[in-house]
Amino acid sequence: MKKKFWLLPLLACVLMLTGCGKSLSDQSVLDNVKESNTITWGVKGDVKLFGLIDVRDGQQKGFDVDMAKAITKRILGPKGKAEFVTTTSQSRIPLLKNGNVDAIIATMTITPERKKIISFSHSYFDAGQSILVAKNSSIKSAKDLNGKTVIGVVGANSVENIKKIAPRAKVIELQDYAQAMNALKSGQGDALTTDNGILFGLAVQNPGYEVRGGTFTVEPYGVAVNKGQTGFTKAVDKAVLEMQHDGEYNRLIKKWFGDVPGFKYKELYRR
Amino acid sequence: MSMIEFHDVQKYYGHFHALHDINLEIDEGETVVLIGPSGSGKSTLVRTVNGLETIQKGQLIVNGHDLSDPKTNLNILRSDVGMVFQHFNLYKNKDVLENIMLAPRIVSHIPEEENKKRAMELLEMVGLEKWAHNMPSQISGGQKQRVAIARTLAMRPKLILYDEPTSALDPEMIDDVLQVIKKVTNESGMTSLIVTHEMGFAKEVANRVIFMDQGQIVEDENSASFFEQPKTVRAQQFLSKIISH
Amino acid sequence: MIDIFTKFSGQLFVGLGWTILSSVIALFFSLIIGTVFAIMEVVPSKIARFIGRAYVEILRNIPLLVITMFFYLVIPKYVMKINGFTAGTIGLTLYTSAFIAETIRSGIQSVSGGQMEGARSTGMTYWQAMRYIILPQAFKIVIPPLGNQFVNLVKNSSVLAFVAGFDLMYQANSIASTTFDQINSYLVVGVLYLIITLPLSYYMQYLEKKLA
């Protein structure tokens, strides 16, 4: 019995040591992906329009996924392969830092806090945070959320933002968008908040709900890569810029957002 | 007046015919000893009397209650019919005194003071008043069985069933227990039905002996004539085997 | 690790509070419900035994998360509004009660049949014999396995995180996603869970020795 008391400090020490170790090698990701002719992308699996797993073939599909495929071809050439790993808002940074994925393209906003631990490409999509409510809801915009319960997703920055606009809103965080949407439908909250692109996707899947009140933040999405991978970051930036010049970018915008009711997709066009 | 009446009683365990055409009448105040080889159905017969075993056919009436009728309230019957088991079955979570006082308190609602006084008297009678606050695990087998007898008597039963009360005891304990049973049967005038292998004790205590074999009653005699000259060959063989040992 | 603890101690203690509250409520009710179903599993009535058996088999063979999601998403939609904490605690209670029922049932069945016969032969009803003789002995037998169930219950309360129940795990997720320091966030919370579970297991060991 007495022996067991050693367990606690011992365990703590072991875990602290692992916590202090260097997590990633300093190899160049750009060299690695060129060698293997494959880029492994972290994408969303539950976000319609950006990254959603199609139950029929198990493939991720969406704007982020198509962007990743196009960027891959432009970096590695036409025979370059893009592989996809499904991530959530919560798991994407750890997966990147551990080297499970080379880059993340998963509705990820470029923020100063995130920039402290990872690097971003230039923005490839201009989102803004908004709210999704039931069509019969009395909530007109985010300002009406004081005293209401707002559903967000763990790991997304939208929860912080809502507190600035409506300080008395009660916020609950769920694991992913599917759960958050179900919770909204079950009446666990009065509104769901995140980026408008994601919300429009949810509105397409759930007809009784709509995006209200426009955007109240600017959320530039970026491709995330590990710190110090300047070569790879530059290659991504160059690829995105090329896509904007030759019109592939706008084609993808129209492909994914052209049919979304209420979404002014042409404002997203880039030249 | 009769205390126990068996009329053409049949008992089966699946296909095994455990009690075969039992017809038996025991009057109030009688002390009846039930003997026979093991597996002859003695214990089964005794256990049907307080409903621990059910019967499949025939009629069984005990103290005016019809046990063949499923609507009969066995709890009322059992509060008048005591039972002493081979393995004592003292409540392991209660001390000696509580073992005796529990049923009078929660079944018969005897006032606490009266209940305790009676329990101590009974413990004195079986010679265990000093052990009142010991747990069953702290006393010997012979002592346990004497407590079990006291526990049964505390309910003031009209009939006591003894199911091989000394079979699980070390030889040196047996006599103490038999003395207590003898005292109880002689002094109380209660009806007793005793399953035992102790022939000397049986001869001394019984008015009547029932010999069973293979689920049937083979002989039903008064004690003196049975032990002097059993009528059937099976009983003669059984007795000679027991006595030669 | 210390940094995270000092910086977020308020949030962590809130989480600790919800975790303990949920565990205590679930422990209390799962013990009662578990005992009721354990008894149903051993009574003479075939219908009661069937219901008891069905309850235990269904609830212990469904993942806790599924039961919890049912109460979080389905019940509010069709029956009544319940929040994440309540849904999680109900899920935890029912799930644990199935395991406790199973534990107590085996305890009851390991009390020898002679104890029941001894009690019944003095005229006690089945329920009196259960209450005064069988259950007290059964509970004593099942203290060690019951202790395991209690520790499991505390750990399983982390299911609250999935339904925004504000418990320790929920706070860990939230801290980890604000600081991006996953390792230390979960480490702190792991230690806080140990602070609840270790004394609990030592207490159960002590109780076991004391009653043995």
UniProtKB/TrEMBL annotation, chain B:
The keyword Transport applies. Residues 4-239 form the ABC transporter domain. Keywords: ATP-binding, Nucleotide-binding, Transport. The keyword Nucleotide-binding applies. It comes from Lactobacillus apis. SUPFAM superfamilies: P-loop containing nucleoside triphosphate hydrolases. It comes from the Bacteria. This is ABC superfamily ATP binding cassette transporter, ABC protein. GO terms for molecular function: ABC-type amino acid transporter activity; ATP binding; ATP hydrolysis activity.
